[in-house]
Amino acid sequence: MTRPDMNSTTELPVIDAPADPGTPTHCPYCALQCGMRVAVAPGARTTATVTPRTDVPANSGGLCQKGWTAAELLGHPDRLTTPLMRAHKGAPLRPCTWDEALRRIVDDFRRIQDTHGRDGVGVFGGGGLTNEKTYQLGKFARVALRTSQIDYNGRFCMSSAAAAMNRAFGMDRGLPVPITDLADADVIVLVGANPAETMPPFMRHLNQQRARGGTLIVIDPRHTPTARVADVHLQPRPSTDLALANALLHIAVTEGCVDDEYIAARTRGFADVRIAINEFWPERVERLAGVAVARMRTVVRLVAGARRALILTARGAEQHADGTDTVTAFINLALALGLPGRVGSGFGCLTGQGNGQGGREHGQKADQLPGYRRIDDPRARAHVAKVWAVDPEWLPGPGRSAFEMLSALGTSLGPKGLLVLGSNPVVSAPHAALVEQRLRTLDALVVCDFVLSETAAIADVVLPVTQWAEESGTMTNLEGRVLRRRRALAPPPGVRSDLEVLAELAGRLGAPGTWSGRPEVVFDELRAASAGGIADYSGITYERIEREGGVFWPCPATPENGTARNGTPYPFLDRFPTPDGRARFTAVRQHGADEDIDADYPVYLTTGRVLAHYQSGAQTRRIASLVAAAREPRLEIHPDLAERFDIEDGCRVRVSSRRGGIVVRARLNADIRRDTVFIPFHWAGDQRVNLLTNPALDPHSRMPEFKVCAVRLIREDTAPSEDAGEEQRL
Length: 730
Hints:
There is one protein chain. The strands form eight sheets. The chain has a seven-stranded mixed beta sheet with strand order 5-4-18-17-16-6-7, covered by helices on one side. It has a six-stranded mixed beta sheet with strand order 24-26-25-30-23-27. 29% of the residues lie in helices and 17% in strands. By secondary structure, the protein is an alpha/beta fold. The longest helix is centred in the N-terminal third of the chain and has 19 residues, at 98-116. The relative contact order is 0.15. The two termini are 26 Å apart. Helix 16 (402-408) packs across helix 18.
């Protein structure tokens, strides 16, 4: 078996197979959910190896460097195997028994709620939790705690795309087609997406598309590794994607490229959009976004002339204070060209976190019940309450979104206690210094994790829980395909699963209904709770997932879906799940960055991921080969901008925004815009780029504006680092 060079953005296929192929499961990282097998050496619980699976379409035998090294976490010396607890605020974390820890949590949560009401305790989940955990966490908040204060870190990831797709299509499913359809597309447009670094096995589908003569178009302020293989790269100024999309639609209209028959038969609202785009004529947007009109026309003609075309957005377009409207602008373009609802064509988004799709469907969002139901819908409340064996009045109403809840912690109106599963907000939240301060003021902070993350390190109680290869359940990948995660090895003694923790806490709190720590039991209850909802899983079973290699939702338990293979891979072929079956155009206008550059803060900062690391880095910063590939964050800066601030490659630079400052080394790169710098977000402590980011929220999705803020640059030393340029460009 050959593993890839840690400095490569490629992934390698299986060359040979081990004697014991191991347990078939899926990678613990991104939403591609690459298939892999985990083999454990006899008698050595922590010695495991992974090999790629060839029977999973998402990766078809390839893995990236994070996937190849995933098993190294299973026996890592940082692994937590016993509960930890502080005797009091300011005391150190000390080992304790499970009974002591659980009793402390229950006593603290009861005391807080007796004093401050049910919303005195909040819950914060994660987009990497299995569907079963997501479901049980939402149930735990609404039934055991009866709190409205629950949200999750997926609010920082997919919320703007979700809001836009729900508004336009009546459904939020990342890809409207199986991932294998990408290879047959004549044109693919990626907006704010860099899969060459964030999910390298995805690139094989793009490479196949280009090999058969297809065209790849990338829209991104950075000339990323993905942009370098594109046929066309548009490089707009940060926070001008919406204006650019409107200009592309303006060109489509004026050049007669729109599909009038499709618009009349399958949509509503185009007349208002046609009026709104009049102010976005191409020459004006060229000045605003910095993209030449000729290149805009090229893109429109390529997409409009394609037999099959896909427009896909990602975080670069979505993590803005106007992210929902930006995604809507690209949906408008797709609808005008008649793409959604055609086999092999449409609009979609590239989900980021491992269960970023399923994690936003089954109840850990502030306004949501299982099956993608709204918590303020009386019929939805009645249905779910019946499954949970409670009265609908028992259930709370909508709560605060992620940053709104985190920033209210410990205040007179916010929660005084918080339970955290699958998230590390000390690193991942915007305006991170404020969030950390709020977390420290809590009367009770409880964190479930398998390592002492930066958030766990400041908790009052830490519970050690299972990792991906030690548990079973389901994950829903970026296609909307429900997959099986299978347990490959037993957890260390003293470690419990999140499901077991929630079931035990619910019992100790005297919660009504039934609670289980067995994933198959919880999934069956999820099926019943989701039945009839937008994200209907009622026709999906563990056996069916294994038999069919995954099942696309929606999949209601009807005779038709009971016999049809794979559920619903193409959800919009006949109609959209809106009241009248038509998709909705929505007129949107450019708002621009919440915080623009000025004399004091004259440079745009954008953030994102790098090849070697994942999310807050709590996992990947513990893998030696990944750390060696990217030891620290670097400031990516154009040489012309660097010269303006007397910055050399490798020198230390203080980067400051209106919220804080960090010091990082510079990496000169002629491929980035001259008005923009880039810093990745995987590092902790005083290297957290989220100390700088702007928490301004999208009014529809409540997504913070991670992708652009204004900064100033000051050189901190006079000599460049000796290792300047040695690490890979990420």
